[in-house]
Amino acid sequence: MEKVRLNNGLSIPYLGTGTNTYGKENNDYNGELNGDFSALISAINMGYRLIDTAISYRNEAGVGETVKDSGIAREDFFLTTKIPNTDEYVKDKETVRQTIEQSLTNLQTDYIDLYLLHRPIDDEEKQKGAWEVLEEYVGKGKIKSIGVSNFTISDIKKLEQYATIKPAINQIESNSSGWNNDLVKYLLKEDIRPQAWGPMKVSDEHQDVLSKIGESYGKNWAQVILRYQTQRGIIVIPKSHNPENQKANLESQDFLLSEEHMRQIDQL
Ligand SMILES: NC(=O)c1ccc[n+]([C@@H]2O[C@H](COP(=O)([O-])OP(=O)(O)OC[C@H]3O[C@@H](n4cnc5c(N)ncnc54)[C@H](OP(=O)(O)O)[C@@H]3O)[C@@H](O)[C@H]2O)c1
């Protein structure tokens, strides 16, 4: 899998798997935890190494166990998790430290590759405290990269007033219902790598256009949209419970879209 360098010199795969419904009844985000990580096992066996979880998905521990049980070396994986913006996790610096320690325990690891603020924290002082603790953990070597999610340009500018480590990534929604282009351009210019969540949320109408484009390359609509994103510098973390779709998504990176097709997709 092709990798991209982050602003701290570390590398991350361009494509990984989301996990927000893994380990849950009916593959439902709010479903009861049922310990069924077969979709993640399938993804790992297929070659996925970038895995995106979050405290609010309630499945960090199951993700950690599945990664460990795979028998694949820890350093071959790139594990991302995220801290929620609520007081329970970010009330003060000590609470943030406890939250990170719990993530490390849940994920059964000595270090986390990427730790994100899941959303901006309304109280600026609390956000500053949380960011400072993330920086502290980078210093300790227990977190390799830190970043943000769902941050606007103005949120990033505020954070940069006190951050001594620049966010490596901003994980944002980007799909054909809204590419978030202004933000994407800003992030690329600032060397903060954009990462797209919800990359497969594509209307039937858009799927038809993407399928047509895919015919020239022997690729389906999903592969075309994933390639479009990575070809313009955006990391993608599609999530699937279906091994065939997981395989198709993994095979989205072995072709190049023409400039004309890139323009056409951008106009969707
Ligand atoms: N930072 C944030 O605030 C935030 C918010 C939302 C999500 N996320 C992260 O981003 C990840 C991805 O987002 P998401 O899970 O919401 O949505 P997504 O990956 O865009 O879409 C998932 C849906 O796409 C389908 N799908 C996947 N590959 C396909 C393919 N090749 N062909 C046809 N359908 C396909 C899946 O169905 P099948 O299972 O049937 O394949 C599933 O229903 C999450 O799992 C989570 O890790 C982060």
| Total helical elements | 11
Strands of the biggest beta sheet: in what spatial order? Answer: 3-4-5-6-7-8-9-10
Strand content: 15-25%
Shape: globular
CATH architecture descriptor text: Alpha-Beta Barrel
What binds here, in terms of ligands, is:
NADP nicotinamide-adenine-dinucleotide phosphate
Can you give a write-up of this model?
With 268 residues, the chain is of the alpha/beta class. It has a single domain (12-202, 235-241), classed as TIM Barrel, CATH 3.20.20.100. The protein has helices spanning 38-46, 60-69, 87-90, 93-106, 124-140, 153-160, 181-189, 204-215, 221-231, 243-250, 259-266; strands spanning 3-5, 11-13, 17-18, 50-52, 78-83, 112-117, 143-149, 169-173, 193-197, 235-236. The protein has an eight-stranded parallel sheet. Strands 1-2 form a two-stranded antiparallel ribbon. Helix 1 packs parallel to helix 10 (243-250) and helix 8 crosses helix 9. Bound molecules: NADP nicotinamide-adenine-dinucleotide phosphate. NADP nicotinamide-adenine-dinucleotide phosphate is lined by residues 18-20, 52, 149-150, 171, 197-201, 222, 237-242, 245, 248-249.
Quick tags:
two-stranded antiparallel sheet; alpha/beta; 8-stranded parallel sheet; TIM Barrel
